[in-house]
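Researcher: Next sequence.
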Amino acid sequence: DLIRTGFSDLDFSIGGLSLGEFVVIGGRPSMGKTQFLVSIALNVSIEAPILYFTFDLSQTLLTYRFISALTGVAVDRIIQNRLDPIDRTRLLHVEKELEKHKILINDSSNSSISALKSQCLKHIQEDGVKVIIVDFLQMMSSNRYRNSRELEIGYISRELKNIAKDNNVCIIASSQLSRAVESRGGNKRPMLSDLRESGAIEQDADKVIFIHRPEYYGFLEDEDGNNLSGVAEILIAKNRNGRVDEIKLTIDKDFTKFKDYE
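Model: Next structure:
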């Protein structure tokens, strides 16, 4: 019942993703949350069908992200059609490549938890979906707790956990972090208390994983003098069935995908 993320150090550290789990991927803007989810989706979808809810990007723009990750061509060059001959060669067989991945994209403007739940049940039954990605949690709504965003987010995170548990699927949701990260001194690494709008997210999640790019904050070397450009620190801040840990991944210069640390 374990699903590999496709990142060997991460899989070794957390033992893969379990069915029935609710996993939260947190990060400040520009850390690469969506591209990290795209990388996981591509790695997983060769083996298991994936349902990807995108509340931030249209289906077309998200598909460009998948194409970018598969080919290494920067997404802005694809969107603006600024392709050189090497890019065009890389894009030649991308349709064939995409066909190997079982990914269903839902970009409906209905961001209510009840609509998401019914779509999940439909695709679990009809398509055998095993992994559901929600990008991102704070863009969802419910018909309850209209006067308290914190209670509303808490209700949504509990519902996501229940969908995962009741249907034996893994739900991965990205989450914004509070601005407290920016005002903190030192290396500005996120902590569980930075999860925006709700302690319930921390409570409901089986795993909480943060993406942190020291380079973004001007840190170009670690304490041991290792180069940090193109490095993403993946901080496993909560792991219900294992240890907390910290691993590194590499991001290429065009930010197309995450790879095992070199």
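Model: The longest helix spans residues 149-167. The chain is about 35% helix and 20% strand.
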